[in-house]
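A quick aside before the break. I want you to see a complete sequence-to-structure record at least once, exactly as it would be stored in a machine-readable document. Don't worry about memorizing anything.
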Amino acid sequence: MKYYNVNCVKFGFSYEFSDFFIDNIEQYEIPKCEVNHHIKTVLLDTIEVPKGSTLYNLNNRAIFQTDSKEIVIVFSDNKPVLKIEKSNDYKEITLYLMKTMSGLAEIEYVYTGIIFMELCLYHGIQSIHGSAITCNEQAVIFSGPSGVGKSTLVSNWKRLDSSIQIINDDKPLLSINHDIQVSGSPWSGKTKMNKNITLPLHSIVFLEQGLSNQVRQLSNPEKVLFVMKNINRPRQDDLWNKTQEVLEKLIDEIPMYLASITNSIEAAMSIKEKIGV
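That is the input. The structure line, written in tokens, reads:
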């Protein structure tokens, strides 16, 4: 097991497949130390479903709760193929995978990312679906559904400013240190594009495809709607409570925009001019 520090969340982590972690997670590695959380992956021949009634069922998942831990079973064709076992204090989290599943490396990467994002919520850190870039020692986040053109926009932005870096290309982390801070993590989508850096958040731009390039600033009620569509929404009330301060500060203090754009460098120019960076 190796040890990592991601946005001040220190944890031990033992994974089975290096495909998505090699040349990625090493920048977050720290010397062996005392940590409050351990995450590991275990490969099994079969996944056993706990006895007793479920806490509730959600899509293809069943959630079981005991006095000391929560167990999530994921089904495929009505057969259990994956299990997440988490102690109630988040100290021990184990991902169990069926050996016979195809695409195990990607499945491990996706589900350990889900586990880590929940761990972030436990620490009052929220994640948002989007691509975060550096800009004049601040961070700008482009958020929106898959296929809307985030990657194209970032590429065109680089043509305008070759010095920018991608902090996280999928789920940048939001936390409070006087102001809203943006951090990278090793879970950044298939591109593995991320940096172990933290910068103050300048603004968030929500994207939609358009026939021309139009950018307008959002009101606070509109901010709430767009933010809620794109953040990691927990099941548990206590995790909502832990991130409430981040969300309130985000809505109250961070400028947000809606950009209806084309896949062109003019789109990047229009946004850059509107948000003033």
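Two observations worth writing down. Residues 62 and 73 are 5 Å apart (CA to CA). The chain has a mean pLDDT of 94. We'll return to this after the break.
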